[in-house]
Amino acid sequence: MEYVIETRSLTKRFPNKTAVNKADMHVEKGAIYGLIGKNGAGKTTAMKMLLGIIAPTEGEITLFGSKDLAAERRRIGSLIEAPGIYKNCTAYENMKRFSYLAGGTDEEINELLNFVGLGTVGSKKAGAFSLGMKQRLGIAIALLGDPELLILDEPINGLDPAGIKEIRDLILKLNKEKGVTFMISSHLLDELGKIATAYGIINDGKLVEEISAEELTSRCHDGLKIVVDDLEKAAALLTEKGFSDLKVKRTSLLLRDGIERAAEINTLLVSNGLSVSELSVHSNGFEEYFIKRLGH
After folding, report:
1. In whole angstroms, what is the distance from residue 200 CA to residue 212 CA?
2. Helix axis angle, 106-115 relative to 91-102, nearest 10°?
3. How large is the average pLDDT for residues 48-72?
4. Largest CA distance in the chain
């Protein structure tokens, strides 16, 4: 397994708070890794340490399999907090200024602006851009120098639904067409759930869990909620008929993978003298899963 980011016991202590506490992170090449946590959980601090903006108190960082962090960071583009753009400059002028640091020809600048959908804004000053346009310009700047990894801190925070979709589509496009690996922090779980291939859940500075999107989906699988007058009899009947993935709760049964056979289940229970008062889809959604992991 090839990791572009790997940390061991990564820690940052400030005088009054431990912002990141012994985090072991693993971001695979080609992944869209969602770093999820509440505001103040340590997401931005962790990203700043990876980028060399602040120094860790202790722990190790490996980038692209190497400990030569200064060299490997040249392969990373980033957008931390708000994009630092020049408001009185056009999109092209902004890109030109940043290209002196990151590298990039006029041809590459125009290609990137077209890629992020800003190729036709012409002489419009960046200060007059919508929030979504500013975020797209920030991502275009981060793409100068053809990075293999992009670290984005809350890239969809404050955007309207159209702006969120623009950024989401751009991230997917970069991941699929250019093979860019992403680490994206967010507290907007539903939106991140549409693009992430893996998650790191951070709470009060601790990385609570890392989980793939596939594993998360299997854990949050929908089930059939059944409310009957005799739970034990219903459970015995269903088990006898081969419905094995069954949980008996306080006032209901939860039958995983039973949704497609709801009519059959209803007939079975009623024909055996049970009074069925509810058959409904029960979803243990992403948000519920993360809230449990975050200790609420």
Report:
1. 9
2. 120
3. 97
4. 79
- Are 271 and 257 in a shared domain? yes
List the CATH number of the domain containing 283. 3.30.70
Look at residues 172, 194, 218 and tell me which one is the last residue of a structural domain.
Answer: 218
Bridge-based pairing state of the strands 76-79 and 17-23: unpaired
In the chain, how many domains are there?
A: 2
Same structural domain for residues 137 and 202? yes
Tell me how crowded residue 10 is: count the other CB atoms within 10 A of its CB: 24
Q: Does residue 136 share a domain with residue 14?
A: yes
Lookup: tokens for 161: 């639904």
Measured from the Cβ of residue 205, the count of other Cβ atoms closer than 10 Å reads: 22
**139 and 68 share one domain:** yes
pLDDT band at 283 (very low <50, low <70, confident <90, very high): low
Neighbours of 113 (CB within 10 A): 21
d(CA 126, CA 144) in angstroms, rounded, equals: 18
Query: Domain of 54: which CATH number?
Result: 3.40.50.300
156 with 274, same domain? no
Distance, in Å, from the CA atom of 148 to the CA atom of 143, rounded to the nearest integer, reads: 9
DSSP state of 75: G
* Mean pLDDT, residues 198-226: 88
pTM of the predicted model over 0.90: no
The SS3 call for residue 234 is helix
According to DSSP, residue 90 is labeled B
Provide the residue range defining the domain that includes 227: 222-289
| Contact (CB, 8 A) for 29 and 3 | yes
**Bridge partners, residue 8, by sequence:** 60
Cα–chain-centroid distance for residue 156?
A: 11
